[in-house]
Amino acid sequence: MALMITPNISVGTAIAAILLTLSLTRLFPFLIRLKSKQGKEKQLLPLPPGPHGLPILGSLPFLKPNLHQYFSGLARTYGPVFSIRLGYKLFVVISSPSAAREILKDQDAAFANHVIPAAILFNYKGSRPDLLWASYDTHWRIMRKIVAREMLSPASLEAMVPIRRGEMRRTVENVWAKAKMGVTVHVRDTAFLTMLNMATSMLWGERAAYDCNEKELQRAIKELIGLFMAPNVADFFPVLAPLDPQGFGRRVNKVTEWIIKYLEKIVEKKKQKMAVGERRRDVLEVLLDLVEIGNPQEPFTMDDLFKLIMNLMEASTNTISTVVEWSMAELLSDPTKMRIAQQELDDVIGKHRVVEESDIPQLHYLCAIVKEALRLHPPSPLLIPHSPSSQCVVGGFSVPAGTTVLVNIWKIQRDPHLWGEDAEEFKPERFLATGKEMNDFYLRGNDQFCYFPFGAGRRMCVGFALGEKMVIYMLVSLLHSFDWRLPENVTLELREKFGTVLVMAEELVVAPAARLDKPELYFFYMPFEAGRRACAGIALGETMVIYMLASLLHSFEWRLPENVPLELREKFGTVLRKEKELVAVPTVRLDKLEL
Protein backbone atom coordinates (compact mmCIF):
# COMPACT_ATOMS: atom_id res chain seq x y z
CA MET A 1 0.00 0.00 0.00
CA ALA A 2 1.71 3.17 -1.17
CA LEU A 3 0.83 5.97 1.18
CA MET A 4 4.06 7.46 2.48
CA ILE A 5 5.27 10.82 1.19
CA THR A 6 8.99 10.99 1.92
CA PRO A 7 11.79 13.44 1.16
CA ASN A 8 12.97 11.04 -1.56
CA ILE A 9 9.88 11.78 -3.66
CA SER A 10 8.16 15.01 -2.77
CA VAL A 11 4.50 15.84 -3.06
CA GLY A 12 5.34 18.20 -5.92
CA THR A 13 7.06 15.42 -7.85
CA ALA A 14 4.10 13.11 -7.35
CA ILE A 15 1.65 15.77 -8.51
CA ALA A 16 3.80 16.56 -11.53
CA ALA A 17 3.80 12.89 -12.48
CA ILE A 18 0.02 12.86 -12.30
CA LEU A 19 -0.43 15.97 -14.40
CA LEU A 20 2.11 14.89 -17.00
CA THR A 21 0.68 11.40 -17.39
CA LEU A 22 -3.03 11.96 -17.13
CA SER A 23 -4.98 13.10 -20.14
CA LEU A 24 -8.37 14.69 -19.87
CA THR A 25 -9.80 12.20 -22.32
CA ARG A 26 -8.85 9.34 -20.00
CA LEU A 27 -9.83 11.12 -16.81
CA PHE A 28 -13.23 12.50 -17.81
CA PRO A 29 -15.11 9.15 -17.92
CA PHE A 30 -13.75 8.27 -14.48
CA LEU A 31 -15.00 11.53 -13.01
CA ILE A 32 -18.45 10.91 -14.48
CA ARG A 33 -18.58 7.39 -13.01
CA LEU A 34 -17.29 8.69 -9.69
CA LYS A 35 -20.07 11.26 -9.48
CA SER A 36 -22.68 8.65 -10.42
CA LYS A 37 -21.28 6.23 -7.84
CA GLN A 38 -21.40 8.87 -5.13
CA GLY A 39 -25.03 9.57 -5.98
CA LYS A 40 -25.98 5.93 -5.47
CA GLU A 41 -24.08 5.78 -2.18
CA LYS A 42 -25.97 8.76 -0.81
CA GLN A 43 -29.25 6.97 -1.50
CA LEU A 44 -28.14 4.33 1.02
CA LEU A 45 -26.22 5.80 3.94
CA PRO A 46 -23.78 8.71 3.96
CA LEU A 47 -20.09 8.16 3.57
CA PRO A 48 -18.08 8.80 6.72
CA PRO A 49 -17.23 12.48 7.18
CA GLY A 50 -13.81 13.75 6.19
CA PRO A 51 -11.80 16.51 4.53
CA HIS A 52 -13.03 17.66 1.12
CA GLY A 53 -9.66 17.96 -0.58
CA LEU A 54 -9.01 19.31 -4.08
CA PRO A 55 -10.52 18.30 -7.41
CA ILE A 56 -8.78 15.28 -8.93
CA LEU A 57 -5.99 15.22 -6.32
CA GLY A 58 -8.19 14.95 -3.24
CA SER A 59 -6.12 15.29 -0.08
CA LEU A 60 -2.86 14.06 -1.62
CA PRO A 61 -1.11 17.45 -1.36
CA PHE A 62 -1.88 17.66 2.37
CA LEU A 63 -0.53 14.28 3.50
CA LYS A 64 2.20 14.22 6.15
CA PRO A 65 5.13 11.74 6.17
CA ASN A 66 3.94 9.96 9.33
CA LEU A 67 0.51 8.94 8.09
CA HIS A 68 -0.54 7.19 11.31
CA GLN A 69 -0.07 10.44 13.22
CA TYR A 70 -1.69 12.53 10.48
CA PHE A 71 -4.75 10.27 10.44
CA SER A 72 -4.91 10.38 14.24
CA GLY A 73 -5.22 14.16 14.00
CA LEU A 74 -8.01 13.86 11.42
CA ALA A 75 -9.83 11.40 13.69
CA ARG A 76 -9.92 14.03 16.42
CA THR A 77 -11.67 16.36 13.96
CA TYR A 78 -13.96 14.00 12.03
CA GLY A 79 -14.47 11.12 14.44
CA PRO A 80 -13.31 7.49 14.75
CA VAL A 81 -14.66 6.57 11.30
CA PHE A 82 -13.75 9.08 8.61
CA SER A 83 -13.19 9.04 4.86
CA ILE A 84 -10.54 10.73 2.77
CA ARG A 85 -10.02 10.83 -0.98
CA LEU A 86 -6.49 10.41 -2.25
CA GLY A 87 -6.54 10.90 -6.00
CA TYR A 88 -9.25 8.67 -7.43
CA LYS A 89 -9.25 6.30 -4.45
CA LEU A 90 -11.59 6.43 -1.47
CA PHE A 91 -10.05 5.58 1.91
CA VAL A 92 -11.88 4.95 5.18
CA VAL A 93 -9.81 5.15 8.36
CA ILE A 94 -10.90 3.37 11.55
CA SER A 95 -9.70 4.69 14.92
CA SER A 96 -11.88 3.08 17.59
CA PRO A 97 -12.14 -0.43 19.10
CA SER A 98 -15.86 -0.73 18.28
CA ALA A 99 -15.37 0.09 14.59
CA ALA A 100 -12.31 -2.18 14.42
CA ARG A 101 -14.43 -4.99 15.83
CA GLU A 102 -17.05 -4.45 13.12
CA ILE A 103 -14.41 -4.88 10.42
CA LEU A 104 -12.14 -7.55 11.90
CA LYS A 105 -14.76 -9.70 13.63
CA ASP A 106 -18.42 -8.93 12.94
CA GLN A 107 -17.92 -8.48 9.17
CA ASP A 108 -14.60 -10.28 8.96
CA ALA A 109 -15.38 -12.25 5.78
CA ALA A 110 -16.53 -9.17 3.86
CA PHE A 111 -13.32 -7.27 4.74
CA ALA A 112 -10.92 -10.21 4.33
CA ASN A 113 -9.40 -9.01 1.04
CA HIS A 114 -6.15 -7.02 1.04
CA VAL A 115 -5.42 -4.12 -1.30
CA ILE A 116 -2.55 -5.03 -3.63
CA PRO A 117 -0.06 -2.17 -4.29
CA ALA A 118 0.24 -1.21 -7.95
CA ALA A 119 3.97 -2.02 -7.96
CA ILE A 120 3.21 -5.59 -6.87
CA LEU A 121 0.23 -5.98 -9.19
CA PHE A 122 2.37 -4.79 -12.11
CA ASN A 123 4.50 -7.92 -11.80
CA TYR A 124 1.83 -10.60 -11.46
CA LYS A 125 0.88 -10.57 -15.15
CA GLY A 126 -1.66 -13.35 -14.77
CA SER A 127 0.08 -15.28 -11.99
CA ARG A 128 -1.50 -15.74 -8.58
CA PRO A 129 -0.76 -13.33 -5.71
CA ASP A 130 1.32 -14.46 -2.75
CA LEU A 131 0.03 -15.20 0.75
CA LEU A 132 0.19 -11.58 1.93
CA TRP A 133 -1.71 -10.04 -0.98
CA ALA A 134 -3.94 -12.93 -2.09
CA SER A 135 -7.69 -12.41 -2.06
CA TYR A 136 -9.68 -14.31 0.52
CA ASP A 137 -10.25 -17.42 -1.58
CA THR A 138 -9.27 -21.08 -1.93
CA HIS A 139 -5.71 -20.25 -2.99
CA TRP A 140 -5.17 -18.10 0.11
CA ARG A 141 -6.57 -20.83 2.38
CA ILE A 142 -4.25 -23.43 0.82
CA MET A 143 -1.18 -21.23 1.28
CA ARG A 144 -2.06 -20.35 4.86
CA LYS A 145 -2.74 -23.99 5.71
CA ILE A 146 0.68 -24.99 4.35
CA VAL A 147 2.42 -22.40 6.54
CA ALA A 148 0.42 -23.34 9.63
CA ARG A 149 0.95 -27.07 9.13
CA GLU A 150 4.56 -27.24 7.95
CA MET A 151 6.18 -24.34 9.80
CA LEU A 152 4.07 -23.32 12.75
CA SER A 153 2.67 -26.57 14.13
CA PRO A 154 3.82 -27.40 17.70
CA ALA A 155 5.87 -30.33 16.40
CA SER A 156 7.60 -28.19 13.75
CA LEU A 157 8.39 -25.40 16.19
CA GLU A 158 9.80 -27.85 18.72
CA ALA A 159 11.96 -29.54 16.07
CA MET A 160 13.47 -26.17 15.14
CA VAL A 161 14.51 -25.17 18.67
CA PRO A 162 18.17 -26.18 18.07
CA ILE A 163 18.26 -24.02 14.93
CA ARG A 164 16.93 -20.98 16.76
CA ARG A 165 19.25 -21.58 19.71
CA GLY A 166 22.29 -21.96 17.48
CA GLU A 167 21.63 -18.76 15.56
CA MET A 168 21.01 -16.80 18.75
CA ARG A 169 24.29 -18.03 20.23
CA ARG A 170 26.13 -16.98 17.06
CA THR A 171 24.64 -13.50 17.40
CA VAL A 172 25.73 -13.26 21.04
CA GLU A 173 29.21 -14.41 20.03
CA ASN A 174 29.42 -11.78 17.28
CA VAL A 175 28.27 -9.02 19.64
CA TRP A 176 30.81 -10.19 22.24
CA ALA A 177 33.59 -9.88 19.65
CA LYS A 178 32.48 -6.30 18.94
CA ALA A 179 32.34 -5.55 22.65
CA LYS A 180 35.93 -6.75 23.09
CA MET A 181 37.07 -4.45 20.27
CA GLY A 182 35.00 -1.49 21.50
CA VAL A 183 32.86 -1.51 18.34
CA THR A 184 29.26 -0.29 18.45
CA VAL A 185 26.29 -2.43 17.39
CA HIS A 186 23.47 -1.49 15.03
CA VAL A 187 20.56 -3.17 16.79
CA ARG A 188 18.16 -3.30 13.83
CA ASP A 189 20.73 -4.72 11.41
CA THR A 190 21.96 -7.24 13.97
CA ALA A 191 18.43 -8.48 14.64
CA PHE A 192 17.59 -8.49 10.92
CA LEU A 193 20.59 -10.65 10.01
CA THR A 194 19.92 -12.99 12.93
CA MET A 195 16.36 -13.56 11.78
CA LEU A 196 17.39 -13.91 8.13
CA ASN A 197 19.84 -16.69 8.94
CA MET A 198 17.34 -18.25 11.31
CA ALA A 199 14.66 -18.20 8.59
CA THR A 200 16.88 -19.73 5.90
CA SER A 201 18.09 -22.39 8.34
CA MET A 202 14.51 -23.35 9.13
CA LEU A 203 13.44 -23.19 5.49
CA TRP A 204 16.22 -25.16 3.80
CA GLY A 205 18.78 -26.04 6.45
CA GLU A 206 21.53 -23.52 5.67
CA ARG A 207 22.37 -20.03 6.83
CA ALA A 208 22.15 -17.36 4.14
CA ALA A 209 25.85 -16.62 4.54
CA TYR A 210 26.76 -20.05 3.19
CA ASP A 211 25.23 -19.47 -0.22
CA CYS A 212 25.85 -15.84 -1.11
CA ASN A 213 27.01 -12.64 0.41
CA GLU A 214 24.48 -12.30 3.21
CA LYS A 215 24.55 -8.53 2.83
CA GLU A 216 23.33 -8.85 -0.77
CA LEU A 217 20.31 -10.91 0.23
CA GLN A 218 19.69 -8.58 3.16
CA ARG A 219 19.74 -5.54 0.88
CA ALA A 220 17.45 -7.22 -1.66
CA ILE A 221 14.83 -8.09 0.96
CA LYS A 222 14.97 -4.61 2.49
CA GLU A 223 14.62 -2.96 -0.91
CA LEU A 224 11.65 -5.15 -1.83
CA ILE A 225 9.90 -4.37 1.45
CA GLY A 226 10.57 -0.64 0.99
CA LEU A 227 9.02 -0.66 -2.48
CA PHE A 228 5.75 -1.99 -1.05
CA MET A 229 5.18 1.39 0.62
CA ALA A 230 6.89 3.76 -1.81
CA PRO A 231 4.72 6.80 -2.74
CA ASN A 232 3.38 5.47 -6.03
CA VAL A 233 1.07 7.67 -8.10
CA ALA A 234 -0.43 4.55 -9.69
CA ASP A 235 -1.93 3.53 -6.33
CA PHE A 236 -4.05 6.67 -6.25
CA PHE A 237 -4.86 6.75 -9.97
CA PRO A 238 -5.38 3.11 -11.08
CA VAL A 239 -5.68 4.18 -14.73
CA LEU A 240 -1.92 4.81 -14.59
CA ALA A 241 -1.00 1.41 -13.17
CA PRO A 242 -0.23 -0.29 -16.53
CA LEU A 243 2.15 2.58 -17.37
CA ASP A 244 4.15 2.26 -14.13
CA PRO A 245 4.96 6.01 -14.38
CA GLN A 246 7.51 6.07 -11.55
CA GLY A 247 9.10 2.72 -12.36
CA PHE A 248 8.33 1.06 -9.03
CA GLY A 249 6.82 -1.97 -10.72
CA ARG A 250 9.95 -2.48 -12.80
CA ARG A 251 12.15 -2.11 -9.72
CA VAL A 252 10.07 -4.69 -7.83
CA ASN A 253 10.44 -7.01 -10.82
CA LYS A 254 14.23 -6.57 -10.89
CA VAL A 255 14.67 -7.26 -7.17
CA THR A 256 12.24 -10.19 -7.27
CA GLU A 257 14.11 -11.74 -10.20
CA TRP A 258 17.38 -11.51 -8.25
CA ILE A 259 15.87 -13.23 -5.21
CA ILE A 260 14.24 -15.94 -7.34
CA LYS A 261 17.56 -16.68 -9.09
CA TYR A 262 19.14 -17.04 -5.67
CA LEU A 263 16.33 -19.36 -4.58
CA GLU A 264 16.55 -21.39 -7.80
CA LYS A 265 20.12 -22.35 -6.91
CA ILE A 266 18.97 -23.43 -3.45
CA VAL A 267 16.10 -25.44 -4.94
CA GLU A 268 18.32 -27.15 -7.53
CA LYS A 269 20.82 -28.19 -4.87
CA LYS A 270 17.98 -29.47 -2.69
CA LYS A 271 16.50 -31.47 -5.58
CA GLN A 272 19.86 -33.13 -6.24
CA LYS A 273 20.12 -34.21 -2.61
CA MET A 274 16.54 -35.47 -2.57
CA ALA A 275 17.16 -37.46 -5.77
CA VAL A 276 19.84 -39.56 -4.03
CA GLY A 277 17.80 -40.02 -0.87
CA GLU A 278 19.36 -37.29 1.25
CA ARG A 279 16.48 -35.75 3.17
CA ARG A 280 16.23 -33.46 6.19
CA ARG A 281 12.46 -32.97 6.11
CA ASP A 282 12.92 -29.22 6.21
CA VAL A 283 10.29 -26.80 4.91
CA LEU A 284 11.71 -26.60 1.39
CA GLU A 285 11.58 -30.38 0.98
CA VAL A 286 7.94 -30.40 2.06
CA LEU A 287 7.09 -27.62 -0.40
CA LEU A 288 8.90 -29.40 -3.25
CA ASP A 289 6.93 -32.56 -2.46
CA LEU A 290 3.70 -30.55 -2.70
CA VAL A 291 4.74 -29.22 -6.11
CA GLU A 292 5.62 -32.74 -7.26
CA ILE A 293 2.31 -34.22 -6.09
CA GLY A 294 0.33 -31.68 -8.11
CA ASN A 295 -2.92 -32.12 -6.18
CA PRO A 296 -5.66 -30.62 -8.44
CA GLN A 297 -7.80 -29.89 -5.35
CA GLU A 298 -4.95 -27.96 -3.71
CA PRO A 299 -2.69 -26.80 -6.56
CA PHE A 300 0.75 -25.60 -5.50
CA THR A 301 3.28 -24.55 -8.17
CA MET A 302 6.94 -23.54 -8.22
CA ASP A 303 5.77 -19.94 -8.60
CA ASP A 304 3.75 -20.35 -5.39
CA LEU A 305 6.80 -21.89 -3.69
CA PHE A 306 9.08 -18.96 -4.51
CA LYS A 307 6.48 -16.39 -3.47
CA LEU A 308 5.78 -18.18 -0.19
CA ILE A 309 9.46 -18.40 0.73
CA MET A 310 9.89 -14.69 -0.03
CA ASN A 311 6.85 -13.92 2.16
CA LEU A 312 8.33 -15.90 5.03
CA MET A 313 11.74 -14.22 4.77
CA GLU A 314 10.18 -10.75 4.56
CA ALA A 315 7.84 -11.33 7.50
CA SER A 316 10.43 -12.91 9.79
CA THR A 317 13.11 -10.27 9.33
CA ASN A 318 11.68 -6.78 9.08
CA THR A 319 8.99 -6.94 11.75
CA ILE A 320 10.98 -8.72 14.43
CA SER A 321 14.11 -6.60 14.00
CA THR A 322 12.05 -3.42 14.31
CA VAL A 323 10.32 -4.50 17.54
CA VAL A 324 13.64 -5.57 19.09
CA GLU A 325 15.05 -2.13 18.27
CA TRP A 326 12.09 -0.28 19.79
CA SER A 327 12.20 -2.44 22.93
CA MET A 328 15.90 -1.78 23.43
CA ALA A 329 15.47 1.95 22.77
CA GLU A 330 12.67 2.29 25.33
CA LEU A 331 14.81 0.55 27.97
CA LEU A 332 17.81 2.75 27.21
CA SER A 333 15.58 5.79 27.70
CA ASP A 334 14.63 4.55 31.18
CA PRO A 335 17.61 3.06 33.09
CA THR A 336 15.37 2.05 36.00
CA LYS A 337 13.34 -0.28 33.80
CA MET A 338 16.57 -1.63 32.29
CA ARG A 339 17.82 -2.51 35.79
CA ILE A 340 14.53 -4.20 36.67
CA ALA A 341 14.68 -6.28 33.49
CA GLN A 342 18.27 -7.40 34.05
CA GLN A 343 17.59 -8.14 37.71
CA GLU A 344 14.77 -10.46 36.65
CA LEU A 345 17.22 -12.20 34.32
CA ASP A 346 19.74 -12.62 37.12
CA ASP A 347 17.07 -13.95 39.49
CA VAL A 348 15.61 -16.46 37.03
CA ILE A 349 18.68 -17.47 35.02
CA GLY A 350 21.75 -16.13 36.81
CA LYS A 351 25.04 -15.35 35.12
CA HIS A 352 26.39 -18.88 35.03
CA ARG A 353 24.48 -20.14 31.98
CA VAL A 354 22.90 -18.89 28.76
CA VAL A 355 19.25 -18.11 28.05
CA GLU A 356 17.00 -20.82 26.63
CA GLU A 357 13.57 -20.45 25.01
CA SER A 358 12.17 -22.50 27.87
CA ASP A 359 13.08 -19.65 30.26
CA ILE A 360 10.71 -17.19 28.59
CA PRO A 361 7.48 -18.08 30.49
CA GLN A 362 9.22 -17.24 33.79
CA LEU A 363 10.40 -13.81 32.59
CA HIS A 364 7.20 -11.90 33.29
CA TYR A 365 8.65 -8.39 33.22
CA LEU A 366 10.59 -9.02 29.99
CA CYS A 367 7.44 -10.34 28.33
CA ALA A 368 5.59 -7.23 29.52
CA ILE A 369 8.34 -5.03 28.03
CA VAL A 370 7.83 -6.54 24.58
CA LYS A 371 4.04 -6.25 24.83
CA GLU A 372 4.36 -2.61 25.84
CA ALA A 373 6.74 -1.95 22.93
CA LEU A 374 4.19 -3.56 20.60
CA ARG A 375 1.46 -1.36 22.09
CA LEU A 376 3.33 1.91 21.57
CA HIS A 377 5.07 0.96 18.33
CA PRO A 378 2.98 -1.62 16.44
CA PRO A 379 4.94 -2.87 13.41
CA SER A 380 2.09 -2.02 11.00
CA PRO A 381 0.41 1.03 12.56
CA LEU A 382 -2.39 1.04 9.96
CA LEU A 383 -2.38 -2.74 9.43
CA ILE A 384 -2.31 -4.13 5.90
CA PRO A 385 -5.08 -2.26 3.98
CA HIS A 386 -8.37 -4.16 3.78
CA SER A 387 -11.07 -3.82 1.13
CA PRO A 388 -14.73 -4.90 1.39
CA SER A 389 -15.99 -7.29 -1.27
CA SER A 390 -19.44 -5.69 -1.08
CA GLN A 391 -21.07 -2.52 0.24
CA CYS A 392 -20.93 -2.56 4.07
CA VAL A 393 -21.98 -0.40 6.98
CA VAL A 394 -19.43 0.55 9.65
CA GLY A 395 -20.24 2.88 12.52
CA GLY A 396 -23.50 3.84 10.82
CA PHE A 397 -21.74 4.93 7.61
CA SER A 398 -21.65 3.41 4.15
CA VAL A 399 -18.38 1.80 3.05
CA PRO A 400 -18.62 0.99 -0.68
CA ALA A 401 -17.15 -2.17 -2.17
CA GLY A 402 -13.52 -1.66 -3.19
CA THR A 403 -12.84 1.07 -0.62
CA THR A 404 -9.39 0.96 0.97
CA VAL A 405 -9.91 0.53 4.72
CA LEU A 406 -7.14 1.34 7.19
CA VAL A 407 -7.31 0.42 10.89
CA ASN A 408 -5.22 2.88 12.91
CA ILE A 409 -4.14 0.58 15.72
CA TRP A 410 -1.41 3.08 16.62
CA LYS A 411 -4.12 5.50 17.79
CA ILE A 412 -6.27 2.81 19.40
CA GLN A 413 -3.35 1.45 21.42
CA ARG A 414 -2.49 4.96 22.66
CA ASP A 415 -6.04 6.06 23.45
CA PRO A 416 -6.12 7.52 27.01
CA HIS A 417 -9.77 6.48 27.35
CA LEU A 418 -8.62 2.87 27.02
CA TRP A 419 -5.17 2.95 28.58
CA GLY A 420 -5.34 5.83 31.06
CA GLU A 421 -3.76 9.25 31.16
CA ASP A 422 -0.29 7.68 30.91
CA ALA A 423 -1.14 6.00 27.59
CA GLU A 424 1.79 7.73 25.85
CA GLU A 425 4.29 6.48 28.44
CA PHE A 426 6.33 3.29 28.22
CA LYS A 427 5.01 1.38 31.21
CA PRO A 428 5.43 -2.43 31.10
CA GLU A 429 3.79 -2.66 34.51
CA ARG A 430 0.37 -2.14 32.88
CA PHE A 431 0.67 -5.73 31.58
CA LEU A 432 1.44 -7.09 35.04
CA ALA A 433 -1.86 -6.15 36.66
CA THR A 434 -2.60 -9.77 37.54
CA GLY A 435 0.93 -10.52 38.68
CA LYS A 436 1.90 -12.23 35.43
CA GLU A 437 2.19 -11.39 31.77
CA MET A 438 -0.99 -10.45 29.91
CA ASN A 439 -3.05 -13.38 28.76
CA ASP A 440 -2.24 -14.32 25.17
CA PHE A 441 -5.87 -13.89 24.20
CA TYR A 442 -5.17 -10.17 23.83
CA LEU A 443 -2.87 -10.96 20.93
CA ARG A 444 -5.76 -12.48 19.01
CA GLY A 445 -7.70 -9.23 19.02
CA ASN A 446 -9.89 -9.57 22.09
CA ASP A 447 -13.50 -8.51 22.29
CA GLN A 448 -12.43 -5.06 23.48
CA PHE A 449 -10.13 -4.61 20.44
CA CYS A 450 -7.82 -2.31 22.36
CA TYR A 451 -4.62 -4.32 21.77
CA PHE A 452 -3.98 -6.26 18.56
CA PRO A 453 -0.48 -5.40 17.24
CA PHE A 454 -0.49 -8.36 14.83
CA GLY A 455 -3.98 -7.67 13.50
CA ALA A 456 -7.07 -9.77 14.16
CA GLY A 457 -9.56 -11.93 12.35
CA ARG A 458 -8.99 -14.12 9.33
CA ARG A 459 -6.10 -12.08 7.97
CA MET A 460 -4.16 -11.60 11.20
CA CYS A 461 -0.46 -12.50 11.07
CA VAL A 462 -0.29 -16.29 10.87
CA GLY A 463 3.06 -16.36 12.66
CA PHE A 464 2.24 -13.95 15.48
CA ALA A 465 3.02 -16.44 18.28
CA LEU A 466 6.44 -17.36 16.89
CA GLY A 467 7.14 -13.72 16.05
CA GLU A 468 6.51 -12.50 19.59
CA LYS A 469 8.53 -15.37 21.04
CA MET A 470 11.49 -14.53 18.79
CA VAL A 471 11.38 -10.85 19.80
CA ILE A 472 11.44 -11.84 23.48
CA TYR A 473 14.14 -14.49 22.96
CA MET A 474 16.43 -12.08 21.12
CA LEU A 475 15.88 -9.19 23.53
CA VAL A 476 16.37 -11.43 26.56
CA SER A 477 19.57 -12.92 25.11
CA LEU A 478 21.05 -9.48 24.43
CA LEU A 479 20.07 -8.04 27.82
CA HIS A 480 21.28 -11.11 29.72
CA SER A 481 24.66 -11.27 27.97
CA PHE A 482 25.53 -7.57 27.84
CA ASP A 483 25.17 -4.22 29.50
CA TRP A 484 24.17 -1.55 27.00
CA ARG A 485 24.80 2.18 26.75
CA LEU A 486 24.66 4.89 24.11
CA PRO A 487 27.97 5.98 22.53
CA GLU A 488 29.44 9.18 23.95
CA ASN A 489 27.82 12.43 22.81
CA VAL A 490 24.88 10.53 21.28
CA THR A 491 21.34 11.51 22.29
CA LEU A 492 18.56 8.95 22.10
CA GLU A 493 15.57 10.09 20.03
CA LEU A 494 12.40 8.01 19.93
CA ARG A 495 11.02 9.58 16.76
CA GLU A 496 9.04 7.35 14.41
CA LYS A 497 9.27 6.93 10.66
CA PHE A 498 6.21 5.54 8.88
CA GLY A 499 6.77 2.88 6.25
CA THR A 500 6.21 -0.79 5.57
CA VAL A 501 6.94 -1.15 9.28
CA LEU A 502 7.14 1.58 11.90
CA VAL A 503 10.88 2.05 12.37
CA MET A 504 12.92 4.47 14.44
CA ALA A 505 13.71 7.61 12.45
CA GLU A 506 17.35 7.30 13.55
CA GLU A 507 18.70 3.75 13.69
CA LEU A 508 19.68 2.70 17.21
CA VAL A 509 23.44 2.32 17.63
CA VAL A 510 24.68 1.14 21.04
CA ALA A 511 27.84 0.03 22.81
CA PRO A 512 27.76 -3.42 24.50
CA ALA A 513 29.82 -4.62 27.47
CA ALA A 514 30.02 -8.27 28.56
CA ARG A 515 28.23 -9.03 31.86
CA LEU A 516 28.33 -12.85 32.24
CA ASP A 517 30.64 -14.57 34.75
CA LYS A 518 32.43 -16.91 32.33
CA PRO A 519 33.91 -15.81 28.97
CA GLU A 520 33.20 -19.25 27.50
CA LEU A 521 29.47 -18.54 27.75
CA TYR A 522 29.87 -16.15 24.82
CA PHE A 523 31.22 -18.80 22.49
CA PHE A 524 28.87 -21.18 20.80
CA TYR A 525 30.95 -22.92 18.18
CA MET A 526 34.30 -21.78 16.76
CA PRO A 527 36.37 -24.72 15.49
CA PHE A 528 38.22 -22.39 13.10
CA GLU A 529 38.68 -19.57 15.66
CA ALA A 530 36.72 -16.29 15.56
CA GLY A 531 37.16 -12.57 15.07
CA ARG A 532 39.58 -10.81 12.74
CA ARG A 533 42.11 -13.67 12.69
CA ALA A 534 39.63 -16.48 12.10
CA CYS A 535 40.62 -19.00 9.43
CA ALA A 536 40.11 -17.36 6.03
CA GLY A 537 39.22 -20.69 4.41
CA ILE A 538 36.60 -21.78 6.90
CA ALA A 539 33.86 -22.31 4.31
CA LEU A 540 36.07 -24.36 1.97
CA GLY A 541 37.60 -26.33 4.82
CA GLU A 542 34.26 -27.33 6.29
CA THR A 543 32.91 -28.19 2.83
CA MET A 544 35.87 -30.47 2.04
CA VAL A 545 35.59 -32.31 5.37
CA ILE A 546 31.91 -32.97 4.73
CA TYR A 547 32.57 -33.93 1.09
CA MET A 548 35.30 -36.43 1.95
CA LEU A 549 33.39 -37.98 4.85
CA ALA A 550 30.20 -38.23 2.81
CA SER A 551 32.04 -39.87 -0.10
CA LEU A 552 33.65 -42.48 2.14
CA LEU A 553 30.43 -43.28 4.00
CA HIS A 554 28.41 -43.40 0.79
CA SER A 555 30.82 -45.75 -1.00
CA PHE A 556 31.79 -48.14 1.80
CA GLU A 557 30.67 -49.87 4.97
CA TRP A 558 33.25 -49.44 7.73
CA ARG A 559 34.31 -51.60 10.70
CA LEU A 560 37.24 -51.96 13.05
CA PRO A 561 39.75 -54.79 12.45
CA GLU A 562 39.19 -57.87 14.61
CA ASN A 563 40.38 -57.58 18.19
CA VAL A 564 41.12 -53.85 17.81
CA PRO A 565 39.33 -51.66 20.38
CA LEU A 566 38.38 -48.07 19.52
CA GLU A 567 40.08 -45.47 21.68
CA LEU A 568 39.10 -41.77 21.48
CA ARG A 569 42.07 -40.34 23.37
CA GLU A 570 43.50 -37.03 22.13
CA LYS A 571 47.09 -35.99 21.42
CA PHE A 572 47.87 -32.29 21.63
CA GLY A 573 49.95 -30.72 18.88
CA THR A 574 49.75 -28.26 15.99
CA VAL A 575 46.38 -29.89 15.43
CA LEU A 576 44.48 -32.03 17.93
CA ARG A 577 44.93 -35.59 16.63
CA LYS A 578 43.82 -38.99 17.85
CA GLU A 579 46.51 -40.45 20.05
CA LYS A 580 46.41 -43.64 17.97
CA GLU A 581 45.76 -43.39 14.25
CA LEU A 582 42.40 -44.79 13.20
CA VAL A 583 42.63 -47.96 11.12
CA ALA A 584 39.40 -49.30 9.61
CA VAL A 585 38.30 -52.02 7.20
CA PRO A 586 36.13 -50.91 4.23
CA THR A 587 33.53 -52.97 2.36
CA VAL A 588 32.07 -51.82 -0.95
CA ARG A 589 28.39 -50.87 -0.53
CA LEU A 590 27.45 -49.40 -3.93
CA ASP A 591 25.64 -51.50 -6.52
CA LYS A 592 27.92 -50.27 -9.30
CA LEU A 593 31.30 -48.70 -8.76
CA GLU A 594 31.93 -46.01 -11.36
CA LEU A 595 35.40 -44.49 -11.57
Task: Describe this protein's structure.
- There is one protein chain.
- The chain is built from 20 helices and 16 strands.
- The chain is mainly alpha-helical and 595 residues long.
- It folds into 2 domains: 138-522, Orthogonal Bundle (Cytochrome p450); 537-588, no CATH class.
- Helix 8 (161-181) packs antiparallel against helix 9 (187-204), helix 8 (161-181) runs parallel beside helix 19 (464-481) and helix 14 (302-332) packs across helix 16.
- This is Cytochrome P450.
Q: How do the strands and helices of this protein lay out in sequence?
A:
Elements: H1 11-21, H2 24-44, H3 67-78, E1 81-86, E2 89-94, H4 97-106, E3 113-114, H5 118-124, H6 138-150, H7 154-159, H8 161-181, E4 185-186, H9 187-204, H10 214-228, H11 233-236, H12 248-275, H13 283-293, H14 302-332, H15 335-348, H16 364-376, E5 386-387, E6 392-394, E7 397-399, E8 404-407, H17 409-412, H18 416-419, H19 464-481, E9 482-485, E10 496-497, E11 503-504, E12 509-514, H20 538-555, E13 556-559, E14 570-571, E15 577-578, E16 585-588
Parallel strand pairs: 2-8
Antiparallel strand pairs: 1-2, 3-5, 4-12, 6-7, 9-12, 10-11, 13-16, 14-15
Low-confidence stretches: 1-32, 440-445
- Give the tally of β-strands: 16
Provide the β-strand percentage band.
5-15%
Largest sheet: 3 strands, mixed
CATH class of the largest domain: Mainly Alpha
Q: Report the structural category.
A: mainly alpha
State Rg. 27 Å
Q: Would you tell me the overall average pLDDT?
A: 85
Side-by-side strand order of the widest sheet: 1-2-8
Helix count, DSSP H or I runs of 4 or more residues? 20
Share of helix, binned: 40-55%
CATH superfamily of the largest domain: Cytochrome P450
CATH fold-level name of the largest domain: Cytochrome p450
The shape, in one word, is globular
- The CATH architecture classification of the largest domain is Orthogonal Bundle
CA(first)-CA(last) distance = 58 Å
* Count of spatially separate domains: 2
Protein name: Cytochrome P450
GO molecular function: heme binding; iron ion binding; monooxygenase activity; oxidoreductase activity, acting on paired donors, with incorporation or reduction of molecular oxygen
Keywords: Heme, Iron, Metal-binding, Monooxygenase, Oxidoreductase
Organism: Dendrobium chrysotoxum
